[in-house]
Amino acid sequence: MTILVTGASGHLGANLVRRLLEDGNSVRVLLREGTNNTAIDGLDVECVYGDLRDFASTVAAVKGCDRIYHCAANVSTLNGDTHLKQEIYDCNVKGTIHVLRAALDADVSKVVVSGSFSAVGHHPSRPSDETVPFYPFAQHLPYGFTKALVEHECLKAFADGLDVVVAVSCAILGPNDFKPSRMGRTLLDFAHGKLLAYIPGGFDFVAARDIVEGHILAMEKGRGGQKYIFSTQFLTVDELMKIFEEVTGMSRPKLRLPGKVMAGIASIADFVFPQIFPNAPRRFTSGAVRILQMNRRADISKAKNELGYQPTSVQQAIYEAYEDFARRSLIARPNNTVKFTVSGKDYRLQHNHNNT
Ligand SMILES: NC(=O)c1ccc[n+]([C@@H]2O[C@H](COP(=O)([O-])OP(=O)(O)OC[C@H]3O[C@@H](n4cnc5c(N)ncnc54)[C@H](OP(=O)(O)O)[C@@H]3O)[C@@H](O)[C@H]2O)c1
């Protein structure tokens, strides 16, 4: 049985492929030529090259596979120009349509599609579960809109007879982050003393190992046409800074800007930057600031009750991300003691510059 993973070079895909291989599966990955595919280097996988925007190459990747994890997406917190919006739409919506159509044509037995918490509606007074609908008239980023449309396409494919489940992710933290991701870059900046300021707010985070487990549970036990939200823990930015301090041995930035001030700065940057670099990656876009200010919380009861999902620990995920960056020489190990708690158990790890 061959399992296809799209987005295998990305943060989630890199962790999922490793887990599938550990579990003894035969894995095929769809990669784009000319992008950073180091996440797959040295892994015992079958590589096929193509682009999800191209139906023919998607069909070729799907052919002969029994199951698909469709993790690929253009993940962005930018509003972007018309060109970027079109690219996000084409990769996320058209790409998903191509995967689902190819899966139907090839009689694939089950597809799990990665969803995003940004496509789950916001409830101001309680954590959002799967029943809270996406509200289209709120302020959304192009990425969020497309992830809502991705779910719509999954339902259409389900109506056409495909067994497809959506595994919804919150903000991912953890190892095998080769691009690296926004959260990974924030940890790197923190470890190098380059994070100059932070803001209050919070979000639901998911450990890479947990979102991988969520995808596997969705494949094994998820009901077709359903979505399941996977999170590990809600953290305020202050709590996140505290864990970063414990793990890196560095102090948090002295500047804690009020959310409204940061929102103002970010919206000025949103205005100025696009004139010069419309689609350049940026850390604090007004979209990212707004999301943190919403303090969005996830209700994961459905995944727990139906699938037996058990979240682990954000501290452990951050520690694993740190260790992985250090192993790849992206962080110099400081002389410090790392303390964290996993499942109620306290861990203390002494680092020095020479240990591995
Ligand atoms: N990261 C998060 O915090 C987060 C939160 C919520 C939901 N999610 C969802 O989780 C999934 C995985 O996210 P991630 O963090 O792993 O993203 P990521 O690190 O940015 O990786 C995205 C992957 O998608 C691939 N891809 C994008 N467009 C493609 C196309 N047109 N054809 C083929 N491959 C394409 C990329 O390939 P290239 O290397 O060639 O660009 C890359 O492998 C996504 O569906 C995302 O919406 C992520």
Topology:
Elements: E1 2-6, H1 11-22, E2 26-31, E3 46-49, H2 55-62, E4 67-70, H3 82-105, E5 110-116, H4 142-159, E6 164-169, E7 171-173, H5 182-191, E8 197-198, E9 202-207, H6 208-221, E10 227-230, E11 233-236, H7 237-248, E12 255-256, H8 259-276, H9 286-293, H10 301-307, H11 314-327, E13 336-342, E14 345-351
Parallel strand pairs: 1-2, 1-4, 2-3, 4-5, 5-6, 6-10, 7-9, 8-12
Antiparallel strand pairs: 9-11, 13-14
Helix pairs in contact: 1-6, 2-3, 3-4, 7-11, 8-9
NADP nicotinamide-adenine-dinucleotide phosphate binds next to helix 1, helix 3, strand 5 and strand 7.
Could you walk me through the main structural features you see in this protein, from its secondary elements to its overall organization?
- The chain has 356 residues and is of the alpha/beta class.
- The protein has a domain at 2-181 and 204-234 and 299-309: 3-Layer(aba) Sandwich (Rossmann fold), CATH 3.40.50.720.
- The chain is built from eleven helices and 14 strands.
- The chain is globular, with a radius of gyration of 20 Å.
- The relative contact order is 0.13.
- The model is unreliable at 352-356 (pLDDT under 50).
- Residues 6-7, 9-13, 30, 32, 35-36, 51-53, 71-75, 91, 95, 114, 116-117, 147, 169, 171-172, 179, 181 line the site of NADP nicotinamide-adenine-dinucleotide phosphate.
- NADP nicotinamide-adenine-dinucleotide phosphate binds next to α1, α3, β5 and β7.
